[in-house]
Amino acid sequence: MLKGIVIFVLGLLIGGAASWAITKSMWNEDQRSRINSYREINDKYNALAAESRARSRKGESIANSSYDRRAIKSCMLNSKIRSSAIEIHLANGAMSDIEKGLFEPLLPVALNSREKSYQYRSLDLTQEAIRLDDECLDQARIRYNHG
């Protein structure tokens, strides 16, 4: 009978130790999972906060500026001509001198993408043209300093 009680107690101890080890392992995994979740949430919060600050600064910048209408019209005309130049380039056509002049800043992109498919060349050139258009519009902004 004593042997049965000893085996029973020994079984309880071994089972308890195994159960404790499993529970601790699960607890540690749960803690790691929570920590990772908190890190992800914190990273997302920081990214959103940075974006919010950037938008706020941009809003303040826009509120303190105006645009030169002639410069904007010039940007629009240049954008249209540059778009036509891209189409002509992709079709291997002949460009006018004005189109060549506005296409010139796109030459490095055109050279880098010459081995790509038509779609990717078109996309690369269009993205660079959009960047140039944005620069043009930024230069058309007149800043006012309120004292």
List keywords for this structure.
147 residues, mainly alpha, 2 domains, two-stranded antiparallel sheet, 2 strands
Mind explaining what this structure looks like?
A two-stranded antiparallel ribbon has the order 1-2. The chain is mostly helical and 147 residues long. The termini are far apart. The chain has helices spanning 2-63, 69-90, 97-103, 107-112, 118-139; strands at residues 65-67, 141-143. It has 2 domains: 29-63; 68-143, no CATH class. It contains 5 helices and 2 strands, in the order αβααααβ.
User: What is the element string, with H for helices and E for strands?
Assistant: HEHHHHE
**Total strands:** 2
Q: Please state the overall shape, judged from the principal axes of the Cα atoms.
A: elongated
Q: How many helical elements?
A: 5
Point out poorly predicted stretches: none
What is the share of helical residues? over 70%
**For the CA atoms, what is the radius of gyration?**
33 Å
Strand order of the largest sheet: 1-2
What's the structural domain tally?
A: 2
Termini gap: 97 Å
Summarize the structure.
This protein is mainly alpha-helical. It has 2 domains: 29-63; 68-143, no CATH class.
Please render the helix and strand layout as text.
Elements (H helix, E strand, L loop, with lengths): L1 H62 L1 E3 L1 H22 L6 H7 L3 H6 L5 H22 L1 E3 L4
Antiparallel strand pairs: 1-2
Helix pairs in contact: 2-3, 2-5
